[in-house]
Write a structure and sequence with these properties.
The complex is a heterodimer of chains A (266) and B (99).
Chain A lengths: L2 H16 L9 H32 L2 H35 L5 H24 L6 H57 L5 H29 L8 H34 L2
Chain B lengths: L1 H30 L5 H4 L21 H19 L19
Classes of the chains: A mainly alpha (266), B mainly alpha (99).
C-alpha cells in the first residue's frame, strides 16, 4: 500500500512522456513582437540618454558623469538588442516566405547570421565599459558596421517581396500552361481557337514584362551601397518597380479570365 | 322713361347674344381638330438588347472550371499581397553617439 503513491507518481510521469510538450514555435509574429518590444525599450532609453548627456555636458559633475555612463550604456544595450531582434525577425520572415530560391535564402541567412553574431559580441562587450570613452569606443564599432547592416536589411526585404511576387507568378504560369493544354485539346476537336490563342500570347507577354520588372528591381536593390547617404530613395524606386510588376500580373489574370469567358461561350 | 328704354333694349339684345353664342359654340365644335393621338401615346422605349451568349460545350468542363477557380483565388492573393512591408523597414537608431 505504501508503494501505491510512488507507483502512481511514476505512472503519471510515464504517461506525460507520451504527450509531446507543445513548445511554442518561434515564428515571425513572435519574432516581430520581440523586436517591437526592444524597439520601444530603446526609444525610452534614448530619451533618458539625451537628458543625461545634456546634464553632463552642462554641469560636468561626477554625479552627472556616472548617470551619463549608466544611461548611455543602457541605451547602447537596447540599441544592439533592437538591431539583433530586427534582423532575427527579418530572417524568420525570409524563412516563411515562399518563392525565394534556396540559394538566395541561404546566402541571406549567412549574411544575417554574421551580423547577428557581430551585434551579440558588440553587446557583450558593453557591460565591461567603465568610462564614457570606453562606451563611445565600443559604440563606434557598431556605427561603422551599420551602413552594411542597413544595405543588407533593404536587400533582404527586397528578396522577401520579390519572393511573394515570384510565387504568385509561378502559380499564374501553372494556370497558363493548363489553359494552353485545354486550348490545344479544343483545337484538336476541330473548334476555332484563334482568339483564345492570340489572347494567350498577350497574357504571356504580360508575364514576361513582370519578369523584366523583377530584374530591374534586383538591379536597383543590388546597387544600394554602404556609401549611399539616402538608401530609402533607392528602396522607394525598387518598390515602384515591384508595384509595376504586380500590375502586369493583375493584367495577366484579367486576360485569363477573358479567355475563359471566351471558351465558355459560343 | 329711360329705364323702360334700357329694359326694352336688353330684352331684344339678350336673346340675340345667346343665339350668337350658341352658333359660335356649334361652329367651334364642328371645326375641332381631333387630338393628335401620336402625341398622347407615351414613347415606347425599347428594352436594352440583352446579349445572350449561349454556353459552349466547354462551359462546364472540369478543367476549365478548375482553372477559373484557381485564377479567382490568385486574383484575391494578388490584391492582398503586401508590397510595402513598412513594418520591416530598418529601425531608426541613433548611430552618432558622442559627447
Amino acid at each position: 500500500m505504501r508503494r501505491l503513491p510512488i507507483l502512481s507518481f511514476l505512472l503519471t510521469i510515464f504517461l506525460l512522456g507520451f504527450f509531446p510538450v507543445s513548445a511554442q514555435e518561434f515564428d515571425f509574429n513572435k519574432a516581430y513582437q520581440d523586436y517591437q518590444y526592444n524597439y520601444n525599450l530603446y526609444r525610452s532609453s534614448h530619451i533618458d540618454y539625451i537628458a543625461a548627456r545634456s546634464e553632463y555636458l552642462n554641469y560636468r559633475t561626477l554625479t552627472s558623469q556616472t548617470k551619463a555612463i549608466e544611461k548611455t550604456k543602457e541605451m547602447l544595450l537596447n540599441r544592439a538588442e533592437t538591431l539583433k531582434t530586427y534582423l532575427t525577425a527579418l530572417r524568420i520572415k525570409l524563412r516563411e516566405t515562399t518563392g525565394i530560391t534556396n540559394y538566395d535564402q541561404n546566402i541571406s541567412y549567412l549574411k544575417l547570421d554574421n551580423k547577428v553574431t557581430f551585434i551579440s559580441s558588440h553587446k557583450n562587450s558593453l557591460p565591461s565599459a567603465a568610462s564614457l570613452e570606453d562606451l563611445l569606443k565600443i559604440s563606434t564599432e557598431l556605427e561603422k558596421a551599420y551602413p552594411e547592416i542597413e544595405v543588407l536589411s533593404y536587400q533582404t526585404l527586397g528578396k522577401i517581396i520579390i519572393g511573394k511576387e515570384n510565387y504568385l507568378r509561378q502559380k499564374i504560369n501553372e494556370q497558363i500552361q493548363m489553359l494552353e493544354e485545354k486550348i490545344n485539346e479544343i483545337r484538336n476537336e476541330g473548334e476555332d481557337t484563334t482568339i483564345p490563342e492570340r489572347w494567350l500570347i498577350q497574357t504571356k507577354e504580360k508575364i514576361k514584362r513582370s519578369e523584366e520588372k523583377e530584374k530591374e528591381t534586383q538591379t536597383v536593390l543590388g546597387k544600394i551601397s554602404t556609401g549611399d547617404t539616402n538608401k530609402i530613395f533607392s528602396w522607394n524606386k525598387a518598390q515602384k518597380l515591384l508595384e509595376e510588376e504586380n500590375q502586369y500580373l493583375k493584367e495577366a489574370i484579367s486576360n485569363i479570365k477573358e479567355i475563359i469567358r471566351e471558351i465558355k461561350n459560343d | 322713361m329711360i329705364k323702360e328704354k334700357i329694359l326694352k333694349t336688353l330684352m331684344i339684345s339678350l336673346p340675340i347674344m345667346v343665339l350668337l353664342l350658341i352658333i359660335f359654340l356649334f361652329v367651334k365644335s364642328k371645326n375641332k381638330i381631333p387630338p393628335n393621338i401620336s402625341e398622347e401615346i407615351p414613347e415606347i422605349t425599347q428594352p436594352p438588347i440583352k446579349v445572350t451568349q449561349t454556353p459552349s460545350k466547354w462551359a462546364n468542363d472540369e478543367k476549365i472550371l478548375k482553372i477559373e477557380a484557381e485564377i479567382l483565388k490568385l486574383e484575391k492573393e494578388l490584391e492582398n499581397v503586401d508590397l510595402k512591408e513598412t513594418s520591416l523597414l530598418p529601425p531608426i537608431l541613433d548611430m552618432q553617439v558622442k559627447f
